[in-house]
Amino acid sequence: MEQLNLYPVAIKVQGRRCLVVGGGNVAERKVAGLQECGAEVVLVSPELTPELERLVASGRVIHLNREFEEGDLEGVHLAICATDNKALNREIARLCENRRIPVNVVDNPELSTFFVPSVIRRGPLCIGITTGGNSPLLARRLREELEEHIGPEFGELTLFLGKLRQIIQERFSDPEKRRKIWEKVLPPGFFAHFQKEKMNSWRKQVEECISSPWE
């Protein structure tokens, strides 16, 4: 496979229609990932896993109980092919390309226009790891390794920094002052010493930092 330099992006799918073709275990994982991000999931397959059947029964997934049809792509924000039918996957990829719909064909990087990374989520903090389709297992192993070092406290930290960003933007109009404040709030080597039990004392230091004169 030709080596690709991928352009990493994070796509908003909240409230948007996303298509998953297939009803097996892989499709189940793809549906779960899309739902976690608030997507409106349309699932096309005559057969489903018990978990997918449960989601359909709960009304959380729109299920088309049949084989894929071209009209299923109408109004779709992105598509994921998770079937073991190579000819069908290729046809869906072609149709998506014609309609300029991003498509991921599971286990076929050449047909895919985007890849779903192995993800670590800590609240609003999202870290994605991809190998460009070369080795999904490597991406998973790296994720497992990083999860040992990036705990739930990083989600709390991210939320706090989001609120702090608003305060700093409102209080300081000079971009250079903002930069200096952020460098003091998050100095080099910060994460090596950051621990949940030290969060309160760190917040106090941050409050003192933004309250001090910056003329």
Automatic annotation (TrEMBL):
It catalyses: precorrin-2 + NAD(+) = sirohydrochlorin + NADH + 2 H(+). Its EC number is 1.3.1.76. Residues 122-149 form the Siroheme synthase central domain. Gene3D superfamilies: NAD(P)-binding Rossmann-like Domain (3.40.50.720), Sirohaem synthase, dimerisation domain (1.10.8.210), Siroheme synthase, domain 2 (3.30.160.110). Pfam families: CysG_dimeriser (PF10414), NAD_binding_7 (PF13241), Sirohm_synth_M (PF14824). GO terms for biological process: methylation; siroheme biosynthetic process. This is precorrin-2 dehydrogenase. The gene is cysG.
